[in-house]
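I am still getting used to backbone structure tokens and would like to learn alongside you. Label the sequence line and the structure token line clearly, so we can match residues to local backbone shapes. Go ahead whenever you are ready, and we will take it from there:
>
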Amino acid sequence: MIEKGAVFPMFYLPPVEYFVQLNNYKDGIVIEKEEHFPKQTYRNRANVYTPDGILALVVPVMKGSKTHTKIKDVKISYDFDWQRLHWLSLQACYRRSAYFEYYEDELAVFYEKNFPYLFDYNEQLLQFILKAIKLPLSISYTDSYEPEHPGNRDFRDSFNPKKESSFNQKPYFQVFDDRKGFLGNLSIVDLLFNQGPQSINYL
């Protein structure tokens, strides 16, 4: 039985497992806005499938965004043109997928316009994805940092790009699966570009 609510971190183009859990708890989702920014997490990185395997797309943050900076206050760095790099990578990875062109114009905006804060950028990307996969959610946000949330499932440390996930995922068609086979728990865009409107049924 699914508990009534869960606390989630805010990620950049989160992995598929994140959306499976969002779907499980869709009537009681709380997103953590007050935590201190942990480095080397999905909060500013996403994994995509290239011809050579997994590529991590990392959103650079301003120097000084150490562990004492609240996630909502972390600023994105534009010292180099990471947006162009990410967009070219997404095109190279998914141009041949069945549904890339279907979502391309709406997604391109996120790589043309500057967003000052990482949290706001991720939040707007999340709203785009939820709309694209047709997953209506009831979302609220924390207004203070609490180490524990009694009665709620806590996912804030559950998804880690450095550890292999135990998430048991059913394979779906991927553009380069003839080279490396099925790669699980990639960014939600991998599912979206390959499955399109069927993504919600998959979740």
The helical segments are 16-24, 82-94, 100-108, 118-132, 177-180, 188-195, 199-202. Strands lie at 5-8, 29-31, 45-50, 53-58, 139-141, 152-154.
